[in-house]
Amino acid sequence: MHLQLTSAPLTPRLSCLVNAMMASPQPSSSAIQSPDNPQTQLPSELSSLLKAFLETQTELLRRQDENHKEIAGLLRTQVKYLSTLQQQVLSDEKPLNPRKWNDESGWAAVFKSAITQTREVAEVWKTGMDVNLVFIALFLTVVTAFLIPAIQNIGPQASDNTENDTAQPSLSAEIAALLFYSSLIISILTAILSVLMRQWIGKLISTPPSKRYKDRAMRHVEMRDLAEKSILFLLKILNMSLILSIVLFVAGLLYQLWALSASFRSQQSVILITATVGSLFTVLVTVVGGFTTAHAVYHKNSPFSNILSDFLRNIISRSSFWSKHLLDSPQKTSWTSDSKLCYYRLVQETTDPSILDSAAPLLQWNRMDETVAGPYLDAALRVLATDSSTQARLTMTIHLSSRYSNN
């Protein structure tokens, strides 16, 4: 293209000169030698035109060669980019290269995953112990407020004479002080154990002192296996000791109320009613606690499990007769809801749209499950919501269309 456009102005003139030379008669020798003859100027002008034409074409060819080199370089760059993009796209479909057993990248990945899971569980433990510590601090204040008068009732009075120094305090005052002191001591010991457990959990979630990820992972797993059972057991001990301290405090308070109401010759109706109402509420809470413990003993998956229910269930399970009548078994276990109803409900309650990509393929309609049509449609509407992915909505649409196309 460049050759034709650039040489266009030269070609007509060159053609005219060539035609004129061919059409003119052959000059004589004298005419050729004459400098004034105009035909002698034709070869020189033709030579200059040819020279200019060749120079122009040479420059055009040089530029064209440079353009070709530049285009070739761009093509090589594009091929390199496309090759890299192809490798990235196909990387998930190709197996990874095998590595040595002591490769740091593999051990680093599993170590980070393990310590992340441990920290999530430890955060739940620490939150529970923080709540216990705050409650213990408030509870100790209340117990101390009731303990001071109890100490005064059993201690010698400063205004008493020496003859009354040997006088013994009343039995009711001693029992009330015993209960209050026991509650106070157990609460303080529970707080000390909670602080120690926080320190142990901090050690558990810390990075083991080692330079290699393999050693870190092995040490962390060993520490976690040793700590899981003991920490879970100690957490149950903490809860039970805290409950025990509360029970002792309430027992001392009720005993003090009943002793106070019985110390008067005439029945004091207000104190008597207070002691009666407090006792009724205490019995009610005790019944609820006993029912939840029995429920946890009978049902293995009960949410009311505690250290007492686990102990009783372990004792009962050793006897085949009592375990057959008092404990549930896999054959006796009956779920309160069907698995499909449970699945539809969980899909409907899902808030993470990415989960719907995995849940949608299971939402296939079964003609025998007409009784769960309502929950199924609710789950289908959740998958068809605007926040779900196009793939999930398309999958659900295919399920629904196949259902109604069969009718």
From TrEMBL:
The chain crosses the membrane at residues 133-155, 175-196, 233-258, 270-298. Keywords: Membrane, Transmembrane, Transmembrane helix. It comes from the Eukaryota. Residues 107-259 form the DUF6535 domain. InterPro entries: DUF6535. This is DUF6535 domain-containing protein. It comes from Sistotremastrum suecicum HHB10207 ss-3.
